[in-house]
Amino acid sequence: MLTAESSVRPHVRPAWFVLDGVSVVERLEALDAPLAEEAARMRAAADRPERTAAVRAMYRRFGVDPTKTRPSSEALLRRVRKGDSLPRINSVVDVCNWCSLEFQVPYGLYDLSKIDGPVVLRAGAPGESYAGIRKDDVHVEGRLVLADSRGPFGNPTSDSARTMVTAGATSILTVIFAPASTSEAELGAMLDATSARMREFAGGVERKRGVN
């Protein structure tokens, strides 16, 4: 389902899984309490400088200044430490943000029905871009990017409007953009927790998963 090109493997270790038969709800009240509890826990939690440094190094290796374009996981942590709640989009995106906040690695979430062919994690080609979610074009030349037969559609900071998960989605691809130093045991724990929460709050069946 997802492979990483050899040029990016020294810097990133993607992990992923596919869920079929999910039910996406715009605002799921059952998530109110666990999201609030996670935000409160992370406000009080000790910093994880090694994880933060590894994710920032991954960004820099692909030409992104992480102090200007923050990893999504770090942006979520800064948000809750300012006293704000986690953003609410829909049930599966909310679970994804919960896990990204807890594990402090960027996540991506995509509607599988809008992806054509195999997915490759690679560096963006010259001139490549895509229409972002509620944003102008996201330019990905030289940056870490997911692509299918139609071109790029996601990266560790901004995903595309083309593959965004909405209420009509029934099969979803979740990707963890972990630094290459992340152990297989750590990635397995992240995949297990994320998949279990997705299935608890959105239903569905895990069809396949992988670690590259």
Could you please describe the fold and organization of this structure?
This protein is an alpha+beta fold. The chain has a single domain (2-211), classed as Phenylalanyl-tRNA Synthetase, Chain B, domain 3 (3-Layer(bba) Sandwich). Helix content is 32%, strand content 25%. Strands 1-4-7-8 form a four-stranded mixed β-sheet, with no helix packed on it. The protein has a four-stranded antiparallel β-sheet with strand order 3-9-2-10. α3 packs across α4. The chain starts with a strand and ends with a strand. 40% of the residues are buried. The mean pLDDT is 96.
Helix-strand layout with pairing:
Layout: E1 2-4, E2 12-20, H1 32-44, H2 49-60, H3 72-81, H4 91-103, E3 107-111, E4 119-123, E5 129-131, E6 137-139, E7 144-148, E8 151-154, E9 171-179, H5 184-202, E10 205-211
Parallel strand pairs: 1-4
Antiparallel strand pairs: 2-9, 2-10, 3-9, 4-7, 5-6, 7-8
Helix pairs in contact: 1-4, 3-4, 4-5
List its salient traits:
212 residues, four-stranded antiparallel β-sheet, Phenylalanyl-tRNA Synthetase, Chain B, domain 3, alpha+beta, four-stranded mixed β-sheet, single chain
